[in-house]
Write a structure and sequence with these properties.
This protein is mostly helical. Helix content is 43%, strand content 8%. The chain has two domains: 40 residues; 153 residues, no CATH class. A hairpin with a 2-residue loop joins strand 1 and strand 2. Helix 5 crosses helix 6. The chain is elongated, with a radius of gyration of 24 Å.
Length: 203
């Protein structure tokens, strides 16, 4: 039995090298090549380019605070080095992990709801879309619900001096439906609709 050990070890080394070559080099290269051909934009981060400059990704939210822009849902991401809040930090994806009974979450949501109503000219008891006051698990959701976008129309139109109906029509134009007509909810990509505003699509 001992005389077979060197041969067994040699075969094990050969098998390891073969599977390492297949699984570690050939397979990743093949999948990368297929992805670049079949899903080029997605494989490269779904980047949005304007005049040769990358302005963002359709998959990663950005912070818009000016009244003339539609605003995304809150972000709970933090700076990985300091732990201080850093909204939409794509290098440190995370949710807040606060439970529904946590006083910190309850107070933050209540405060966000008040701010949202005030910013968008709603009365004190007006319902607020849940995505307007809560974060998502990734921390940088690029989309908002159609209801959230429509409640922001008056503010955006007023800040830009545009006709409300044209801004609403722009929102409706950029509503994306459910995936395969089943999964998810109709949504608006915030960066996409804000870029359309800047291009003058609403006047």
């Amino acid at each position: 039995m001992m005389t077979h050990i060197p041969g067994d070890i040699l075969r094990a080394i050969r098998i390891t090298l073969v599977f390492g070559l297949i699984g570690g080099i050939m397979y990743p290269l093949a999948i990368t090549g297929i992805s670049q051909i079949a899903f080029h934009d997605q494989a490269n981060g779904s980047l949005i380019v304007v005049n040769g400059q990358v302005v963002g990704s359709s998959l990663i939210g950005q912070s818009f605070t000016a009244d003339k822009y539609f605003q995304g849902r809150p972000s709970a991401t933090v700076d990985a080095a300091t732990g201080s809040p850093k909204p939409y930090a794509a290098d440190n994806s995370a949710g807040s992990n606060l439970g529904p009974s946590n006083p910190v979450l309850i107070n933050r949501v209540a405060s966000s709801a008040r701010s949202y109503r005030q910013a968008n000219g709603l009365n004190a008891n007006a319902p607020v879309p849940v995505d307007a006051v809560t974060t998502d698990f990734s921390g940088f959701d690029p989309d908002i619900t159609e209801a959230n976008a429509l409640l922001q129309v008056d503010r955006v139109a007023g800040a830009r001096g545009l006709d409300r109906a044209r801004v609403q029509a722009l929102v409706e134009k950029y509503v994306h439906g459910r995936i395969l007509w089943i999964f998810g909810e109709p949504h608006v990509n915030v960066l996409e609709v804000n870029m359309a505003l800047d291009r003058g699509e609403a006047g």
